[in-house]
Structures are given as C-alpha cells and as structure tokens.
Amino acid sequence: MMTLFDDEQILKAYTKDIEDNKEKETEKNTAKRMIKMGKLSLDEISLCVPTLSLDELRKLETEVLQ
Q1: Which pLDDT tens digit goes with each residue over 35-60?
Q2: What is the spatial distance between Cα 55 and Cα 58, in angstroms, rounded to a whole number?
Q3: What sign has the CA pseudo-torsion 54, 55, 59, 65?
Q4: For residue 52, how many other CB atoms are within 10 A of its CB?
Q5: What angle do CA 43, 38, 32 make, to 5 degrees?
Q6: Shortest CA distance to 61 belongs to which of 24, 52, 51?
Q7: Contact 35, 64 (CB under 8 A)
Q8: What pTM did the predictor assign?
Q9: What are all long-range contacts of 50-56, with beta carbons under 8 Å and residues at least 24 apart?
Q10: Measured between alpha carbons, how far is 17 from 66 in angstroms, rounded to an integer?
Q11: 57 CB neighbour count, 10 Å cutoff
C-alpha cells in the first residue's frame, strides 16, 4: 500500500513547524519589549521585526498596555 507521506517526512514537517513557532514567539517577545520601552512607533518596530504585521503589533500593544 502506498502512503502519501513517510514517517521521516512527517517528522521533518513537525520539527520545522515547532521551530517556526519558537521563532515567531521570540519575535513577539522582542516586539513586546520594544513596545514597553515606548521609544519607537509601531511602524518603526515593524521595520525591526518584519515578520510581524502591523495588525499583530497593534494586538501586542493592546496586551502590553493593559
């Protein structure tokens, strides 16, 4: 019987997904620290952390400032 994916492919995809999520979380934490500092606008932060959209930064700002 033929399978679409073998175990090795599934493991590689899963590992990549975990790494991507860790990287995204690190970038969110960096942006949160920058927002807390209050020295840069969200536009400027988006230049420093380009993987986060302006909408994501606005949500983070709301979280941080609560």
Answers
A1: 999 999 999 999 999 999 999 999 99
A2: 5
A3: positive
A4: 19
A5: 75
A6: 52
A7: yes
A8: 0.78
A9: 51/23, 51/24, 51/27, 52/27, 52/28, 56/28
A10: 30
A11: 21
User: The tokens 């302006």 sit on which residue?
Assistant: 54
What is the rounded distance in angstroms from the CA atom of residue 19 to the CA atom of residue 13?
Answer: 10
User: Residues 2-16: pLDDT tens digits?
Assistant: 567 788 888 888 899
Which of 22, 25, 62 lies closest to 42, judged by CA? 62
Q: Which residues contact 47 (CB under 8 A, 6 or more apart)?
A: none
Return the axis-axis angle of helices 54-65 and 7-37, rounded to nearest 10°: 60
Do the Cβ atoms of 49 and 30 come closer than 8 Å?
yes
